[in-house]
Write a sequence for this structure.
């Protein structure tokens, strides 16, 4: 499988599948696929609890599985609303926590759970966040250029909620809301995410 991100601020993902290889994406993410690639819409996390989790987390109850049944390699293209952030889940054994609805696609089937976060509710991004775990690479919706902040142990960073993309799930307890009247007067809102290291955080280069 070969994956290539195309574009600058407005990005799409071109995927080349070998025979028998599979790729996964959310409904509505496909731009095109070549003949020989078969699509199957599957219900993710079967059972009432699993369906409830995906509904609450902001994701569709369905996932599109694309498999190349042709003898030669075949291509497909997917995209989110604006940009794409690839995250290698093998680097995050506990998974990642991201804003709900940000899952676009993945090179392997992944588990999408939900996480309650009072800090995100206060910040205006909603009570529910997503927890994505598994293996392979997951592609998240983003705007602008995604930036990785590697916060060292003992250090602290303050991130505007609208720019927040995801954080290592192992560091979720180190994410909290920081209230500031100065920030409100300065246009950043009444609170920002306060993140205590060690933590790896991905952010957008723009607010939206």
């Amino acid at each position: 499988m070969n994956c290539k991100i195309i574009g600058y601020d407005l990005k799409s993902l071109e995927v080349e599948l070998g025979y028998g290889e599979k790729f996964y994406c959310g409904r509505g993410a496909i731009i095109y696929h070549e003949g020989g690639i078969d699509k199957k819409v599957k219900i993710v996390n079967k059972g009432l609890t699993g369906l409830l989790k995906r509904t609450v987390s902001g994701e569709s109850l369905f996932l599109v599985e694309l498999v190349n049944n042709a003898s030669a390699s075949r291509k497909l293209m997917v995209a989110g609303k604006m940009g794409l952030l690839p995250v290698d889940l093998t680097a995050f054994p506990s998974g990642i926590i991201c804003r709900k609805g940000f899952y676009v696609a993945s090179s392997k089937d992944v588990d999408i759970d939900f996480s309650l976060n009072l800090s995100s509710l206060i910040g205006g991004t909603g009570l529910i966040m997503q927890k994505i775990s598994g293996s392979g690479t997951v592609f998240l919706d983003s705007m602008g250029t995604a930036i990785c902040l590697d916060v060292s142990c003992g250090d602290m960073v303050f991130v505007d909620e609208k720019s927040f993309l995801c954080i290592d799930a192992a560091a979720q307890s180190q994410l909290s809301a920081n209230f500031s009247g100065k920030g409100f007067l300065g246009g950043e809102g009444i609170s920002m995410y306060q993140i205590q290291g060690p933590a790896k955080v991905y952010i957008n280069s723009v607010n939206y």
